[in-house]
UniProtKB/TrEMBL annotation:
Residues 413-461 form the BFD-like [2Fe-2S]-binding domain. It comes from Nocardiopsis tropica. Catalyzes the reduction of sulfite to sulfide, a step in the biosynthesis of sulfur-containing amino acids and cofactors. This is assimilatory sulfite reductase (ferredoxin). Residues 618-754 form the Nitrite/sulphite reductase 4Fe-4S domain. Signal peptide: none annotated. It comes from the Bacteria.
């Protein structure tokens, strides 16, 4: 058995070991991996999801250690002796090799501006970097990201998620200059600015200045402007980690990177280099797809194959701060005599450009911003003849009509893993792949960035394979079918439903989904009996769990209208229980930092003052936001506050497939932002216009007009029908926007059902809503009246009243915020864990 040493345990090094393990059936190679980070390989592409709640374990690519693979983490390679064929590590370990692979990756480039090493300056590269940024953000109000490229915008979003006002400083005239052109950059700037990020382009960073405490205080720009900055994140590019190779005398490129040939071999034929450390034909690739391709070539070569690396697709599709951005092929139009076709819809928030050959018949590249839905189809067509008028391909109607059947078998569907349409078709017809998971297992397509998954579904449909709508492995039915089953059979428990209509014991997908169905159909309090064991964490304790294990309490404030006496009660509760308070965008007041055992006492004070649960923890109606309408505003044409209160009190507690938000604007000036809601109402001189299917989140979407100039009673009937139709037919965790988009006939079908009653179910839907309205009870008050339910609200069941010792706080802006977790030598206990 020969010895292979891999220096670097990032995504590309991991891919090499995985590919070799899958193919080396004769166990020709024993592999030793040396990685300097304190953990095994993780998904660096998805690193920003760490700020959205993903854990290090969620990002992990798995540990490949086994009989023929040794993985050493937290160990840095310090020397390479090519003559002796050994690698020495910082711990003094010496590893001999027959072949060596340098997968050392890259390091963030930090420009040598004065103050770049002050406390509060960070880079954005590893999980440890993100932990350090999070720690600094606890004491920061304003942060500056230097660099307006991909990682810079991700870093800016991270600061937003951490509650820090974010600025981005970019030397180039527009954002993401490596991927998109000036027109696309201008639109991206506007969309990002609308989200609250301050953009400074064409700006040089000349110094980071310290405050009296020695930490970062300002960033000085080339024009003399000073930006307040309590923390600074450098994201201005990467540099190949080629120091080990340089010291060993391997050839490196003029601008860095270990020089490799088409076999990914360095100037020493026993040493290969892959990923961001390698320079191939003068190019250092900073994307995962080329690195994966290099890893596959080296794995093949180690087993005697003849694979080569001749370059790679640098196309990319991203979602930055909720904005779709994609570029592919010759996006900047560098080919001789090429032609551009551009759609720049500033009002609609979308930009699209196709770069064509000089005879306008061949697609060379393109850029998409705001709406990148056509990317999956257009990118594989690069270098191929166009199937029609290029302008129609980047209009919504034309892009939607172009599918997988327009692509040749040679078209590369998954650029991350170099999978063609032909390979996918073969997986369907010869390897038995019958769903997306099967295609992923057979070809790796869709396992990296995931942008090609919609095209995988098209290929399956093209092959005549009907896609399963099963809720999970325990129920073959969809959520809508299960709801109808529950309704028709009168089933009231999960155990009865799975016994009669499912298999197994259930899982974390079907249990909360069925709990939601039972609650939607009036199945009693969500903590009654078996119901309590089915809920998601937040529903289980009628409060949102926060990052440090405490909970937030959000009382309902219908329409945002509140009396001074009730405001005083909220202030007194926050003061007495030392809670962090924040006014939300939905016109409510959040109280953060309540320990589990404090929740009933807090609820008691609020309920006695006339408050009830705001259901911020549930997949249910959150808020009905309002402007002041005719009550105060000189432009108002209807009583928006009165209607918002009526709607919120009517639909409070309504359980649904996903959360619901609403708003009422008293005139066309739209101060309540009704068109960004699941159902929004805007006043007219003749009555009310009803809009449906809007939402924020990862894919913001404006609601569309369902009906206009309605009187109040007709409006409420239509909303009743719309909400009940959604509850009965939507998939699990499907917001109203994608529900409408996925429906045959889309909004027109919804209008036919809700307004014209083409299915003849309007009366039934209205009756179901009336049952909900008349059966509503406040969930907080119901817990307070039931000793059995109250018993759930203790951090430690065998030591009632004992605070959780892992919870700590610090103070920011005169309010308590989560402090560093205490190290007690054991993991933080989960509620009720002490009794297990």
């Amino acid at each position: 058995m020969e010895e292979l040493v891999v220096i670097g345990n990032g995504m590309v090094g991991h891919r090499l070991v995985e590919a070799l393990h899958d193919r080396d059936s004769d166990h020709r190679w024993h592999v030793t991996v040396v990685g300097e980070e304190p953990r095994t390989a993780y998904d660096r592409v998805a690193l920003s999801s760490y700020f959205d709640g993903a854990s290090a374990q969620d990002l992990s690519l798995g540990d490949l250690s086994g009989p023929h693979v040794d993985v050493h983490v937290g160990e840095r390679a310090t020397a390479l002796d090519r003559e002796a064929r050994t690698v020495t590590t910082a711990s003094g370990r010496t590893l001999g090799y027959d072949r060596l692979v340098l997968a050392t990756g890259s390091t963030p480039f930090v420009p040598p501006v004065p103050g770049h090493d002050l406390p509060g300056c960070h880079v954005y590269r590893t999980i440890e970097d993100l932990d350090a940024i999070t720690a600094s953000a606890r004491h920061a109000r304003t942060g500056v990201v230097i660099g307006g490229g991909l990682l810079g915008l991700e870093a800016a979003n991270a600061l937003r998620l951490l509650g820090v006002e974010a600025h981005v400083v970019e030397l180039a005239p527009h954002l993401m200059p490596a991927q998109i052109d000036e027109g696309a950059g201008g639109l991206l700037r506007r969309l990002v600015t609308d989200l609250g990020v301050h953009i400074h382009t064409g700006a040089a960073s000349t110094a980071v200045e310290a405050g009296a405490d020695g930490r970062v205080r300002n960033l000085l720009l080339g024009d003399g402007t000073r930006l307040d900055a309590d923390l600074v994140v450098f994201s201005v590019g990467i540099r190949p980690r080629d120091d080990l190779a340089r010291a060993a005398g391997l050839r490196v490129g003029e601008r860095g990177g270990i020089v490799i040939d088409d076999t990914c071999t360095t100037s020493d034929d026993r040493i290969h280099a892959i990923g961001e450390a390698a320079a191939h034909r003068g190019t250092v690739y900073g994307l995962i797809a080329p690195g994966n391709a290099m890893a596959e070539v080296v794995a093949d070569r180690l087993l005697g194959g003849g694979a080569t690396f001749t370059g790679a697709d640098t196309s990319t599709k991203l979602k930055l701060l909720g904005v779709d951005v994609a570029s592919f092929g010759d996006a900047h139009g560098r080919a001789d005599d090429c032609l551009d076709v551009v759609v720049n819809d500033a009002a609609g928030g979308r930009y699209a450009k196709l770069v064509l050959s000089d005879d306008a018949t061949t697609l060379l590249g393109g850029i998409l911003v705001g709406d990148a839905s056509a990317y999956a189809t257009l990118r594989p067509m690069v270098g191929s003849p166009l199937p029609g008028d290029p302008l129609t391909l980047i209009t919504p109607e034309g892009g939607a009509a172009l599918g997988a059947d327009a692509l040749p078998d040679s078209a590369q569907i998954c650029s991350c893993n170099a999978v063609t349409k032909g390979a996918l078709t073969d997986a369907v017809h010869t390897q038995g792949a019958c769903d997306v998971a099967g295609l992923k297992a057979c070809t790796r397509a869709g396992t990296s960035c995931g942008s090609c998954v919609p095209m995988l579904k098209q290929i399956l449909s093209q092959a005549g394979i009907e896609q399963s709508k099963a809720l999970c492995e325990h129920f073959t039915q969809s959520r809508a079918e299960l709801l109808e089953t529950v309704r028709a059979t009168g089933t009231t428990t999960f155990s009865a439903l799975i016994e009669n209509h499912g298999t197994g014991q259930g899982c974390d997908i079907c249990k909360p989904a069925v709990a939601s169905i039972l609650a939607s159909l009036g199945g009693g309090h969500i903590l009654d009996g078996e119901q309590a064991t089915l809920q998601d964490t937040n529903d289980r304790y009628l409060a949102n769990m926060q990052r440090n294990g405490t909970y937030s309490v959000v009382p309902r404030i219908p329409g945002g209208e509140i009396t001074p006496d009730k405001l005083i009660v909220i202030g007194e509760v926050a003061r007495d229980f030392q809670l962090y308070t924040k006014i939300t965008g939905g016109q409510r007041i959040d109280l953060f930092g309540a320990r589990l055992e404090q929740l009933p006492a807090i609820w008691t004070r609020l309920v006695e003052a006339g408050f009830e649960s705001g259901h911020a923890y549930g997949k249910s109606l959150r808020t009905v936001k309002s402007c002041v309408g005719t009550t105060w505003c000189r432009y108002g044409v209807q009583d928006s506050v009165g209607l918002a209160i009526r709607l919120e009190e009517r639909y409070r507690g309504l359980r649904s497939p996903h959360k619901l938000k609403s708003a009422v604007s008293g005139c066309a000036r739209e101060c309540a932002e009704a068109r960004s809601k699941d159902f929004g109402i805007i006043a007219t001189d003749q009555g009310w216009n009803l809009y449906v299917g809007g939402n924020g989140g990862f894919t913001p979407r404006h609601a569309e007009l369902l009906a206009s100039d309605l009187d109040e009673e007709t409006l409420i009937r239509y909303i009743d029908r719309f909400l009940m139709f959604y509850i009965r037919t939507a998939d699990r965790l499907q917001r109203t926007a994608p529900w409408i988009e996925a429906m045959d006939g889309g909004l027109d079908h919804v209008r036919d059902v809700v307004v014209h009653d083409t299915l003849g179910i309007a009366e039934e839907l209205e009756a179901a809503m009336e049952r909900h309205v008349h059966s509503y009870t406040d969930e907080w008050a119901a817990v307070l009246a039931d000793p059995a339910k109250l018993a759930r609200f203790e951090s430690f069941a065998n030591a009632p009243g004992t605070p959780d010792p892992t919870i700590s706080f610090t103070t920011t802006r005169d309010q308590p915020v989560p402090g560093a977790a205490l190290d007690l030598g054991m993991p933080a206990p989960r509620p009720q864990e002490a009794t297990r």
